[in-house]
Amino acid sequence: MLKEFKEFIARGNVMDLAVGVIVGAAFTAIVKSLVDNLINPLLGIFIGNIDFSNLVLTIGSAHFKYGAFINSVINFLIIAFVVFLLIKFINKLVPKTPEEPEADDTPSQEEVYLKEIVELLKEKK
């Protein structure tokens, strides 16, 4: 079982996934810093105070920090947009691989003849 686990871990897909998760976490930290330290203050100049983290709804003893949720949504949208731009840029740099031609569903002449032969044999029986 240990040998199988080693083989599983050594596969390229698992290692690629691990690298992707690590790079993704670092990338998220960079984008969060970008949003918190550059974009939010810039938007704050035009809109006013943009720090939503202090917005709290209190019902009884429960505190709903919906402002932090709004900040998370803004971070997600910015991260998604940056990843979109990054993928778009990479797609321009990397040449596309030629696509395989689509399989033709029309039967070849050989297949037509074989089908006719099979039908003739069925009629003889």
UniProtKB/TrEMBL annotation:
Transmembrane regions: 12-31, 38-60, 66-87
Subcellular locations according to the entry: Cell membrane
Listed InterPro entries: Mechanosensitive_channel_CS (IPR019823), MS_channel (IPR001185), MSC/AndL (IPR037673), MscL_channel (IPR036019)
Protein keywords: Cell membrane, Ion channel, Ion transport, Membrane, Transmembrane, Transmembrane helix, Transport
A Pfam cross-reference name: MscL
Name of the protein: Large-conductance mechanosensitive channel
NCBIfam families attached to this UniProt entry: mscL, PRK00567.1-3, PRK00567.1-4
Domain of life: Bacteria
Family per similarity comment: Belongs to the MscL family.
Membrane-related topology note: Multi-pass membrane protein
PANTHER family linked to this entry: LARGE-CONDUCTANCE MECHANOSENSITIVE CHANNEL (PTHR30266:SF2), MECHANOSENSITIVE CHANNEL MSCL (PTHR30266)
Oligomeric and partner information: Homopentamer.
UniProt keyword Transmembrane helix, yes or no: yes
UniProt function note: Channel that opens in response to stretch forces in the membrane lipid bilayer. May participate in the regulation of osmotic pressure changes within the cell.
